[in-house]
Amino acid sequence: MTPSTTSMPLAKALGAGLRAAMAADDHVVLIGEDIGKLGGVFRVTEGLQAEFGDRRVIDSPLAESGLVGTAIGLAMAGFRTVVEIQFDGFVFPAFDQITSQLAKITNRHEGALQMPIVIRIPYGGHIGAIEHHQESPEAYFAHTPGLRVVSPSTPNDAYWMIQDAIASPDPVIFFEPKAKYWMKGEVDTSERALALHASRVVRRGTDVTLVGHGAMVTSLLQAAALAESEGTSCEVIDVRSLSPIDYGPILDSVRRTGRMVYAQEAPGNVSVGSEVAATVMERAFFALESPVIRVSGFDVPFPPAKLEGVYLPDVDRILEAVDRALAY
Amino acid sequence: MTPPDESALVRVLASDGTFAPTPEAERYLPIIDALTDAELETFYRDMVVVRAFDQQATNLQRQGQLALWPPSLGQEAAQVGSVRAARAQDHFFPSYREHVVAMTRGVDPIDIIRVMRGLTHGGWDPTDPRNGNVHIYTLVLGSQTLHATGFGMGLVLDGRCGTGDPERDEAVIVYYGDGASSQGDVHEAMVFAGTYRTPQVFFLQNNQWAISVPVATQSRGPLHARAAGYGMPSTLVDGNDVLASYAVTKLAFDEARSGSGPQAIEATTYRLGAHTTSDDPTKYRTSDEEQSWVARDPIARMRAFLEGRGASASFFAEVDAVAQATADDVRVRTNELGGLDVSSMFAHVYSDDHPLLQEQERWLAEYEATLEGGAA
């Protein structure tokens, strides 16, 4: 451990990244429900209102369309706004402002206006919560031209990616894997390891390429460790950016392994994993030894929490997919 | 139709142009008294010129030159009055029928034409000083009310209002209609505006019809009365009376700029034309109703008022000539508009690089080069 790295949970790393961005630019403001005194329901913004004041860390009325719509107006007035949506399933009241307005405003203005807005969304399951609190709606946004969509899976990525998202002149939908908020990792605050939209090989392997994003990256690494004990070498890639997707490392890997599994919590139909699978098929067809396999949530509404363990892809389902890929 | 809330109505010019202030108009009379002859003539000229443009645009659509046109016919007084009440430093968020607002603030009418011809989604650059701080049209009803409120929040956070210096303080006005008033975004905009005390005027043009749906389907109560629920003062004004519209908006702007928080205005007017050129009003409203509003026409009313004050025939002839020249110029320039470069489709989707788009743009160029006769 070098002096510049600190161990902290992912939520704290996000808070530290927000603090750094706010300190660097006094027109970075945060707005959301309960983000001030309370520090957000996941405490990501804890302490920031005390540090920067209630004009920069703004508790909002309970209205998601209002949050995004006013962030657009703030951007028109020269601010860089970070909006917190409290839970994944609560983003939909803002869907019109995000897809019909935010995503298109720079294009509509032929470049005369930029929309440096970050919409933070805690997403995904594993927390045993009630309806609307465990969803993975990233595909809706990755499908929308004009938006950038990213999801960090480690504290170090969280720290840097939130700052890079705020610095982006384009709107960024920032999906935070809420199951990993409390997961600790080393954060190197002195140097950015990777660009915002780069995918990353997190484990080297030779037999099967495992790809995924968010909380699933942890499961992929666990699956790779188990597979290794059974003699299968898995390469693991964290996509990190869902729009645009950095295909370079994925294609390089598949050209070496010939096999790929994509894991995601979202329903598989018309998902990010579907897009990656199709692209790999188009561009690395002759390298493939087996079909690309998706391991996804089922195409049902996220079930009551007592069934989340069945609904969510886990290590066993990933390994089952690895076995299927190897059977060809 | 909502029963006229006559007791609350601010009006100074009767339908025949006589100066006949309602009781509610009394407090605004000093503002109107302060207007010079030149300003009164400007109001009239603005209305006539934009009506000529609007009719030219309607004709151009009928002749296949435009995809669509949403006429502003009949709503000139509400728009001219409100826009002339602003100061140079104020900001405008229109819906899509505010041709009068846009042109009066300096937007080139050909830029509105380009939107409706299918050449651009925006038309003009709101950050270019020549466009008078007029933001571009928003087609999704009510969405722009939140943008205006957010902009107002920015003015508050940057200390650009409420300093007490009327030369410096800024305000924002947002236009929407009776149909849009039912949208949730308008509610949320008023909630945020009230909470953060934005320097903002909510200007509702109640033109009685949302395409084929009468205002009674939007609300059984007066729309301006909703403002009270947000802790916001509101005023009902005769939107076909340019003087009343001016005075009411001027006071609202002054209050907003000075830090008194958001203000609401409902301007009663009438969409004399179709919703757009794709619409057929004969299917849902009577000719008698339309004629009753023709009798309250904002331009005829102001003309009668000016004639009563002794405006000369040569003034009216000069205005008509300017209007005709504007309309002629728009026709000539519309016919001169070119097409679009294919690559423009990929421009400005993002401000930073996006590899997927770059790849698709490259592919399209190569594909088009393979077509017979080369690129389209």
Can you walk through the features of this model?
The complex is a heterodimer of chains A (about 325) and B (about 375). With about 325 residues, chain A is α/β, with parallel strands linked by helices. In chain A, about 35% of the residues lie in helices and about 20% in strands. Chain A is built from twelve helices and 14 strands. In chain A, the strands form three sheets. A seven-stranded mixed beta sheet of chain A has the order 3-2-4-5-7-6-12, sandwiched between helices. The mean pLDDT of chain A is about 95. Chain B has about 375 residues and is α/β, with parallel strands linked by helices. Chain B has two domains: about 325 residues, Rossmann fold, CATH 3.40.50.970; about 35 residues, no CATH class. In chain B, about 45% of the residues lie in helices and about 10% in strands. Chain B contains 13 helices and eight strands. In chain B, helix 7 links the parallel strand 3 and strand 4. The radius of gyration of chain B is 22 Å and the shape is globular. Chains A and B meet through helix 3, helix 4 and helix 5 of A and helix 6, helix 7 and helix 13 of B.
Summarize the structure.
The complex is a heterodimer of chains A (about 325) and B (about 375). Chain A is an alpha/beta fold and about 325 residues long.
Question: Helices, strands, pairings?
Answer:
The complex is a heterodimer of chains A (328) and B (376).
Chain A: E1 5-9, H1 10-24, E2 28-32, H2 48-52, E3 57-59, H3 64-76, E4 80-84, H4 95-102, H5 105-108, E5 117-123, H6 138-142, E6 148-150, H7 155-167, E7 172-177, E8 184-188, E9 200-203, E10 208-212, H8 216-229, E11 234-238, E12 241-243, H9 248-257, E13 260-267, H10 272-283, E14 293-297, H11 308-311, H12 315-326
Parallel strand pairs in A: 2-3, 2-4, 4-5, 5-7, 6-7, 10-11, 10-13, 13-14
Antiparallel strand pairs in A: 1-8, 6-12, 9-11
Helix pairs in contact in A: 1-7, 3-4, 8-12
Chain B: E1 9-10, H1 29-33, H2 37-62, H3 76-84, E2 91-93, H4 99-104, H5 109-117, H6 143-157, E3 172-177, H7 184-196, E4 200-206, E5 209-210, E6 213-214, H8 215-218, E7 234-238, H9 242-258, E8 263-268, H10 287-294, H11 298-308, H12 313-336, H13 355-370
Parallel strand pairs in B: 1-7, 2-3, 3-4, 4-8, 7-8
Antiparallel strand pairs in B: 5-6
